[in-house]
Amino acid sequence: MKEGFDTTDCFLVDGKLALPYTYFAGRVGSKFLTTIRDEKKIMGIKCNKCNKVFVPPRQTCDVCMEDIRDNWVDVQNTGKVTNFTVVRYDDKHLPKKAPYVLAMIQLDGADTPLVHVVEGIDLDKAKIGMKVQAVFAKETTNTILDIDHFAPA
Amino acid sequence: MSEKFGVKVEDIFNTMEERFRPEGAEGVDASFGYDISGRGRWKLTVKDGSMKIEQTDDLGGCAAVIQADADTFVGVNIGKVDGTAAFTSGKLSVDGDVGAFGTTAKLFKRFTPPKKELTVGEYVLDMFGTLEARFQTGAAEGLDITIGYDIGGEEGGQWTARIKDGKCTVTEELVPSPSLTMIMKAKDWVELMLGKVDAVNLLTTGRAKVEGDMNLATKLGELFAKYTAPGEEEEEEQELLVLKKIISVNQKFATGPVMGKYLNGLKEKKILANKCRECGRMQVPPREVCALCRIRCDEFVEVGPKGNVRLLDTAYYASPDPLTGETRETPYGLIYILLDGCSGQEVFAHFLRDDQLDRIEMGWNEKKGTIVRPVWAEERTGKVADIKYFEIDE
Fold first, then answer.
1. Where in the sequence is the domain holding A128, given as residue range(s)?
2. Contacts of A5 in chain B (CB under 8 A)
3. What pLDDT digit, counting tens, does each position of B111-133 carry?
4. Is residue A117 pLDDT above 50, yes or no?
5. How many structural domains are present in chain A?
6. How far B329 CA sits from the closest chain A CA (Å)?
7. Residue B239 in domain
8. N or C, fewer C-beta in 10 Å, chain B?
9. Which positions in chain A touch B324 (Cβ < 8 Å)?
10. CA gap B69, B55 in Å, rounded
11. CB B253 to CB A74 under 8 A?
């Protein structure tokens, strides 16, 4: 801070931002989630041009720019952690109580990772490449938390 | 010949190869027979993730043979007939290993009828073919009626829907003296069902006639679900997810020395402006630099507290307040006040008392607007809301 800078009148004001928010999952996202909810099955979408399988699914291949919305394929409920972090603070919007492992999980049969929570493992035991398996939620909420978490496989 | 649903049995078999899903065939190594009464027999062989379909009378070696009439078979394949219901009612039967047959459900993508504009005749057939399926049991409680359809023209025909005990049976004939008879040409019937023309229009222009119980005629919309042309219903069926949330974010704003001085002034019911040394301009609330001269402003002057309104904005849409998260009621007034001690465009923005929206006169040039004064909050902590609002000084 600059010398002689007068901070007598500096203080903090608390604010609280509230935003009414409507999220539409879209046709592709809705099918992805309702399939998880109703059939306990994870589906992806495959680009027939580059053969990439997207989980979570998307409507357009980001490389080929092909419309791929109808090319649904089944992927496995198992996969491997491609990256992770440990969330160490609590906040209302977070899915679990801290600390927990938030990981990018590439499911078997998919080419892209899905962000989800890994439970049932010591925080310092989490590592890239570990095998995990989806555990479906008993009570569904029409969100990605219809997969409650992933557990070590 | 076209089936009840406008799709041929052959269409289902001929598209099997393109609808085949190798991922659904994983681990399947079997043959399945299809015996469609009056249409022929087909044999499907699945092995190593590939398939073969052939029309043959030899169904030997099949793990299971399905038997059904053409309408049921087509209906199940295009999703218009519930497969389980057809199975339990005996319309569809499986000879052999039922469990093995269940695996065939995963082998193919659902058949979607090609989208094409149907002829009037095809529409009429499809509309009456789907009438039973579109029947709404719940709306028919206690009803025992017959509805006659006398559809004229070459592509027309005569049908009767009998509704009794919560069931609807459609026959291709016109029974004597139905409870209600509808008489019109095939073309008008199709337009009516597709929603291109309304019933009142048809009746008043004489293109349609209704005989019998008119009250019943007004209830038809409840008795039958709206007709949708083949190939158009799938998209509407999908469940779409919408999530509504109010996102709440706690935050802290640092005032800095200049805004801090202004906010601290509010605690003592003082409104502070700062004055530019170079151009003499006042800024309220004060800013670190003069936005025009770009030099630091450190001379603070108390202004107001009264002033005259130069501009009133009436807000009909409110965004959430970033400090409280609350959304204020609309309409509300936002006023630009020339506080005493300020001149020209050195206006200060604040809220107007809610019930005084229509009593404000705006000033311009030398003309003064309505004089207003601040209403201070009882408890002042150094925030913008330390002034609750301004009200007319009277």
1. 26-152
2. 257
3. 877 666 778 888 888 888 888 88
4. yes
5. 1
6. 15
7. no
8. N
9. 15-16
10. 16
11. no
